Amino acid sequence: MKTPTDKAEYRTLHELGGLECLKATYFRQHFSRHTHEGYTIGVIHEGAQRFLRGHDKYIAPSDSIILVNHDQVHDGHSATASHWSYDACYPTLEQLQQVLGQAGYAWHGSIYFPDPVVYDPELAGVLRHTFIQLYRSDNRLLKETLLYNALLLLIQRHAQPLPSPKEAPEAKQKVERIRAFLTDYSQQSISLEALSEMAEMSAWHLVKQFSHYVGLPPHAYQIQQRLRLAKQYLRQGVPLLDAALAAGFHDQSHMHRYFKRVFGVTPGQFRKGLYNQ
């Protein structure tokens, strides 16, 4: 019997501050380790998802909520021999802080979700209804109201303030310097030797420390940043091939392969979602 095909729809909601949403049913998708600029908030409808968050692995069954903090390394695939189906959105820290501000909350520190998997039937129902309306309704006021209420309820029940970090050890400071360079110049080709000289540590030590503090080795982090840059170009209407080359990929197929592994959709599907409102 032929294996069913994956189905995914990625949409950017411009009227909601550019919020990105994903509706998907995956049979074969294996997300590689990656991060998002925003938080991952997902509701499992069918099946179960096995995923890594940070250094630990979890399983999110049907009707549970997946929570991944912004810039937190994670992956994902089906936890069963069949599929998993879910909706997800990726609000930024600024968008969540805006929700708190509008509600009159005095929140100190960043917003942090300590639990990767949450069992909250009422909230899951609220999120599920919100996702349905985000895709179906053409009433902006309705969508804004539902999203605001859902995110506020989520933060009230399952988030906590993350205090400002204390002064980082010297190794982490060096890693942050390299991370900042790879973020700002991700499209450039640079050697591990050059990075190690910049960090003033051996190449082996740099890879070990970078992977420890960032959750990805330098080359994987570079690809991650190139994908984010490619998304920016696609939002600006740049053709696929030009976006791939400008972001530092060898060609369009190179970008296509990594894009699908990280975002669950192809660059073409992502671009379609920019205009399919």
Describe the structure.
Keywords: DNA-binding, Transcription, Transcription regulation. GO terms for molecular function: DNA-binding transcription factor activity; sequence-specific DNA binding. InterPro entries: AraC-bd (IPR003313), AraC_XylS_family_regulators (IPR050204), Homeodomain-like_sf (IPR009057), HTH-like (IPR037923), HTH_AraC (IPR018060). This protein folds into two domains: 156 residues, Jelly Rolls (Sandwich), CATH 2.60.120.10; 106 residues, Arc Repressor Mutant, subunit A (Orthogonal Bundle), CATH 1.10.10.60. Helices cover 46% and strands 22% of the residues. The protein has ten helices and eleven strands. Helix 4 packs across helix 6. The relative contact order is 0.13. The mean pLDDT is 93.
Mean pLDDT: 93
Distance between the termini: 36 Å
Which structural class do the helices and strands define? Answer: alpha+beta
Q: What is the CATH architecture assignment of the largest domain? A: Sandwich
In the CATH scheme, what's the topology name of the largest domain? Jelly Rolls
Total helix count?
A: 10
Round the Cα radius of gyration to an integer and report it.
19 Å
Uncertain segments are none
Biggest sheet features:
9 strands, antiparallel
**Hey, roughly how much beta strand do the residues contain?**
15-25%
What is the CATH H-level superfamily of the largest domain?
Jelly Rolls
Structurally, the number of domains stands at: 2
Written as H for each helix and E for each strand, in order along the chain, the element string is: EEEEEEEEHEEHHEHHHHHHH
